[in-house]
Queue: 2 jobs
Job 1
Amino acid sequence: MVAPLVLGVLVLVVWHLVVVAFAVPAFLLPTPLAIAQQFVAQFPVILSTAAVTGGNALVGLIAGFLIGLVLAVLAASSRLIAELTTPVVLAASAIPIVALAPVFTIMFGSTTEIARQLVVTVVVIVPVFVSSARGLRAVAPVHGDLMTSLAATPWQRARFVRLPGAVPYVMTGLRLAAPAAVIASVVAEYFGGLQNGLGSRITSAAANTAYARAWAFVVASIVLGLLFHLGGTLVERLVTRGRPA
Amino acid sequence: MSELASAKSARSAVELDGVDKRFGDVQALSGIELTLDDGEFVSLIGPSGCGKSTLLRVVADLEQPTAGTVQVGGKPARQARLDQDYGIAFQQSGLLEWRTVAENVELPLHVHGVGKAERRARAAELLELVGLADFAGSRPAQLSGGMQQRVAIARALAPQPKLLLMDEPFGALDEMTRERMQAELLRIARESGAAVLFVTHSIPEAVVLSDRVVVMTPRPGRITEIVDGRRPGRDAAELEPDDVEDVRETAAFFAAVTAVREALRKGHQ
């Protein structure tokens, strides 16, 4: 617990000394102190913009999670649906979100959050689908035999074994998707639309040569990503508690 | 079929007649003839690949025989499975880790639509029987291997089956736990009145538990000999679980162990 903190402080000190000693220009790298000052000065703005970016990430995360989960359940229940959905979802994973963001912005207009939430949704669907689909397929042979010996119907197999057995996999998908949702939400703001989120503040600060301020918003994005990661991990722990790791 | 034969088959817990099982080119079972009486404890023993587990799975209707007939309690095996006439325990306990111990025991009843209150009562009764009443609300992961296996046995007994099928249920347990579980199983089998078909690798285990030990040999899997098990001259109903320890030290026990060992060796030549 202490070692990473010591390392972090050391990095900051070396960073500061290097920037001062070699007179590194601010557009290349501001000092950590200047970034911290901007962080404090901009704190009210950081809070309101982080709420917008975080809100978009959360809406997209929930929507993408539900869609990914439903698709995985459908794919697990029918070979036909599996063969139809799996390539589509995997193709979706190859879509760079930078390609989607401007298109969605034009489609839904630059005065709504829908485009950004949709970008997040697409990004979240993939890990949730892949992980859930794997969990739904992973039935232990002994459980399969047991349900056969009990003359269980296909629906009972799903209800008693397949669905509850997949929960840890579904939660792993959620945990992986949570920080990715923040990244998608921030990056989606780089392509126009409302100037009310962390991503748009980063671009406008950089465009105005306010480099320390841009970095302060970058730091805020990192913190937001960490919060989502922690939230995802917490939900995973809560839902899978009582199970062997 | 004569009247006498049909009356007999109605009484048998299991009746296997000319059972063959092929997996591709491998003859897993060949010409199996075996009858278990009600309440009888029969072990299947033999080296790996002799088809003892396959035979158990055929009785459980988890595998279909290539030839021959399988009757369980006078019904075809498939009907017996659909009617929940047997309970089964595997080498792995196969507990559902997201359910509590009591909910695991209730599973067969849950699948068959028994009401919640009745399920609860039956699970409590069974956990009492296997000595785990205090763990009803625990998760399987909190239990030792031996305790998990006892939960699995309680689950197998939940639908009050006339037949208990056990595929090396104590195979993964240490020797001390194993001997204690054997005594427990004898007591449970007697109290429930179920016939037991028990697959094992262990000669002493087969002898100490069984009325009859069925010795099998591989390639093709077949029955070579049937040895009378524990307690010659004693009735199953008279045997107290504590006596199992004494049985292990009797001359009759050693004689039966020797007989099984020789039968296994003969089959190997």
Note: The interface with chain A takes residues 57, 60-62, 81-82, 84, 86, 88, 90, 92, 94, 96-99, 107-108, 110-112, 139, 141 of chain B (CB under 8 Å).
Job 2
Amino acid sequence: MAVPKDYKFTKTHEWVKVDGDIATIGITEFAQSELGDITYLELPSAGTALNQSEPFGVVESVKAASDVYAPISGEVIEENNAAIDAPESVNAAPFTDAWLVKVRISDASQLDSLMDADAYEKLVAESGGH
Amino acid sequence: MQRTPLAETHEALGAKMVDFAGWYMPVQYSGIIDEHRAVRNAAGLFDLGHMGQVDVSGPDALAFLQYVASNDVSLIGPGDAQYALLCFPDGGVIDDIIIYRRPSGVGFFVVINAGNKDRDVAWFHEQREKRSDLDVTVNHISDETGMLAIQGPKALEIVSGLSSVDLSDMKSMSCRETEIAGIPCLAGRTGYTGEDGWEFYCPIAQVGELWNALLEAGKPHGLQPIGLGARDTLRLEARMPLYGNELSEEINPLEAGLSWAVKLNKDDFIGRDALIAAKEAGITRRTVGFKMVERGGVPRSHYDVAVDGKTIGFVTSGTASPTLGENIGLALIDKQYAGVGKPLDIIVRGKPVRAEQIKMPFYKRES
């Protein structure tokens, strides 16, 4: 499975794309495929503080509710209302249109603790994904 | 994990496989919503190899089943089928079962749930030993029995082209011996989806062949393989109980809304006294159906249910209903709060989310 080369990843299958001091956060293609049909998103609104590795939202599929973990700490500046209104878009475009939140990064050094695309692809291959 | 003869077939079809009650089973192929719609609009094929079967025969087979099962088994004619419960002496439920009386009229064929198989079989044997006055033979035949289901509005058309005998005039809840694509089957017009369809029981060595024949013949009609994920959403829309959710050792069948399958006025059966006493004392909990009327998440089994901040029960099953496009569920609540149109708060991740009780079943096919 090809993942965007310029993104960073967590072992809990979230991604981050950095643009200056703003990070866009979403879940990966592997995560959406494991969850199946996504029917509901619970996301923090602007102003909420995220702490690295702590749950910040919930993605619900027909099958189950799953927490989403913050890849880095920061303050939410925007949640993706289009994705909230059309949760199935996370199945269709998890790496692009259906991002979850944008945050103002509070500690850029935390990015070093995340996986690059190659390491993440390896993790997914080991988890039985492809 | 145990595997049905079709495990590799499911993998080859691209299924996502999971551990279900110790069985390696497909939870989905193309996706739960897509599969769910295929069954509602065309047809679906299910591998039910994890389910168990018990053959009950001998001159006193009927008397024995009358003693262990809650429904009136004497009402089942040759070639009929009936839903019933196995209860503990205290009225709690061991399992829910389907009893088929063989079309010959001789002997019964009982279908039990995967997760309760060992316990059910031990229970049957224990009761048989206790009732040494009865001449009955109980055989656990799960290992030699293959089980598939085909469900959906196109099921009749698909099986008609393959069956050696006409199945079109079968009543719902009946069974007939036939050959499907040359494979000897007991065909039950039964199911767990709310649609028309059949469950087939065949020699286990031929279940792969049966699967392929049905899938091939069904493709032009839109037949798809269906995983356990859609099996659950389909049965919930049709308000069919799932053991472990709506039924358990701690929930009696009267609370679960299954009094129609409990015949308190027939001769003694295990659990009868306790259920009569419970009924006389007054049933205090009821199983109700609801839909969420506020955004806030999908109701899930074991979520608390509250009214005015007070916990009054819990969700037994919940899902995002593909047919209704609503979040729906069943809940076991204090009876005084039950009633169509009355509000409930479902506690989703610590927050109350408003729901409203609605009529059940959530889905009923047009007949």
Note: Strands of chain A lie at 8-9, 14-19, 22-27, 38-42, 49-50, 55-61, 65-69, 74-79, 101-105.
